[in-house]
Design brief:
Structural class: alpha+beta
Order of helices and strands: HHHHEEEHEHH
Distance between the termini: 29 Å
Number of helices: 7
Shape: globular
Length: about 120
């Protein structure tokens, strides 16, 4: 049985990768992702089913971070609310896209374009 990318990351980052699994799903349906653009251009919240949200916010200390939430009934991950730096989000998106390239070669062109467009290489 093939391990998923979520199984390969630190437990403290599993919520981030779980939500990205759903945020990047449009690449399987079409060759681009409006959600990915919203996340990386830091244009506010994106959310979807089954119960997840990624929002770019300013925290109490004035730092810009990503607030990530997923319904633990769906994700099985606690805590359900976590915060990640811009660098951690970009790295997680990069690793997720590269994982998809390796496992879904028919999407290589679209995924490689996203890596270049968002300077994730």
């Amino acid at each position: 049985m093939q391990r998923s990318l979520i199984d390969e990351v630190e437990p403290s980052q599993q919520l981030l990768y779980w939500t990205l699994l759903f945020a990047l799903y449009p690449f399987f349906v079409e060759s681009s992702s409006f959600v990915l653009h919203r996340i990386l251009s830091q244009q506010g919240a994106v959310r979807g089913s089954p119960g997840w949200e990624i929002d770019f916010i300013e925290n109490d200390m004035g730092d810009h971070v990503y607030h990530v939430w997923a319904d633990p009934a769906n994700s099985g991950i606690e805590p359900a609310n976590q915060y990640f730096s811009v660098e951690m989000m970009r790295d997680a998106v990069r690793k997720s896209l590269l994982y998809m390239v390796r496992n879904f070669p028919e999407k290589t062109t679209a995924l490689s374009s996203a890596l270049i467009e968002y300077k994730l290489r």
